[in-house]
Design brief:
Chain B: It comes from Saccoglossus kowalevskii (Acorn worm). Chain B: It is found in: Cytoplasm; Golgi apparatus membrane; Prevacuolar compartment membrane. The complex is a heterodimer of chains A (317) and B (165). Chain A is mainly beta. Chain A is built from no helices and 22 strands. Chain B is elongated. Chain B starts with 20 loop residues before the first helix and ends in a 16-residue tail after the last helix. The chains are: A mainly beta (317), B alpha+beta (165). At the A-B interface, strand 16 and strand 19 of A face loops of B.
Chain lengths: 317, 165
Amino acid sequence: MSFLFGSNAEIDIALDGQASRKQAEIKTEDGKKEKLYLYYDGESVTGKVNITLKGKKMEHQGIKIEFIGQIELYYDRGNHHEFTSLVKELARPGELTQSTTYDFDFVQVEKPYESYTGANVRLRYFLRVTIAKRLTDVTREMDIIVHTLSQYPEMNNSIKMEVGIEDCLHIEFEYNKSKYHLKDVIVGKIYFLLVRIKIKHMELAIIKRETTGSGPNTFNENETIAKYEIMDGAPVRGESIPIRLFLAGYDLTPTMRDINKKFSVRYYLNLVLVDEEERRYFKQQEITLWRKPDKGKKSTGFVYHGPLQSGPQPPET
Amino acid sequence: MAAEPDLSADTRRLNTKKQTLDDAYAAPANFLEIDVCNPETHGFGKKRYSDYEVRMRTNLPVFKLKESSVRRRYSDFEWLRTELERDSKIVVPPLPGKAWKRQLPFRGDDGIFEEDFIEERRQGLEAFVNRVAGHPLAQNERCLHMFLQEPVIDKNYVPGKVRNT
């Protein structure tokens, strides 16, 4: 939360229902974790702005509060892409003679995307109060976190494929679903059809790929979120190796595709076989991650986002 | 974000085809053993050279002979490496050193015919040929098959790929 001390005023933003509202954690740019209030698409954002005067009075050119959702690309810091921008005027130009509290009410605000802090891009939502002054404005920002929720997908086919190198290695891999929620379990198996190489071990990794830019300026940042060995030793034809990978233990976000045409965050399962000469044979397969509502959460009033869409579905009744 | 796993999720193993006993206990399909051994030094004076036995046992269908034994010298390995660098798509591993210093005159020892040098070179050549022969993208190169299984290397051969027998 950034703020500038004006010469004679201090701004404080208090959200309604702070006591009962959940908080969520998100990484800050410097890698630390921050706890912020959690909102969903369609929810109103309401609260109070407290302005505390330091001196006896303060002249101003107007006081307003904005609700902003923006995407910041780290390589292009000057340009923030605002996809949501709402403003409410709190006070006309005039003079404050005492500390004052203003109510604000952004009704049923659209929050089409999930908050995200990544390696090269950041998507954030925040409230910003501005006291306009002749020389320098006094501002205060307060970030919130937005999660996008989805319902169980109607179709969720398993992924089953035969891959290999001709005459050397044939395997069939299967993962029980193509769309997994963030606390789901990946259940699968690897079946060996032909093994003419000397395999030492096999491992499975979850790779997060953040894509920013477009066309010739596309940049992919890959991060290995998890990696673990699922087989040690040399398999022969006909052997099946089981896979069971609990996603809840890892720092994952929902799959984000082409958000506001600015960035994507996608997840891949990377199956790697390593032979005795340290040669690596791998097969990457994309999976879709989505966020399930918590148990007991009231589902009315929220807007659900289909796991594969980049926009919202109509609200539940 | 730490979270509780979904304990209602079905984590039972997927159904698998049962492996036949034949498959489970048969010889593995990836049997390939190559030894570089029995070094011998031939000739006299300036015409001296050493060579090694390259002995191979395999059940890979791509090799015509399941057992073979040939004699090869260091320059034959160099030839193989050059051919593979040109024709195959792999990053060819390095050979053990050429040992120029050992070939200079006025050494106190026997230079490249010293026993421990030959042993060191033997180990490097064995590692090299195993690494190359086990590589799926080099396994079907004709130069490799000629190197491993023909008594004499025909340097005028036609480079290309060997098809599976």
